[in-house]
Amino acid sequence: MNRPENEYGDWANPTLKEMPFWREGMTPEEYDTEREYYYKNYDLVRKMKYKPLWVQKKEFKETL
Question: Which whole number is the average pLDDT over 38-61?
């Protein structure tokens, strides 16, 4: 179900917000997607080459 971000309120607790892919305004669905990507690409994390998906999308848009 797609909802505007403001309908979610403050759904994330402080522990969830400590994850390296967290950003303000993130929906629970976005969080789940980012978490899955983070763990599937943990080799990039260990190599210090990990970038959250939302950062990659932002950088891509800036190149257009």
Answer: 97
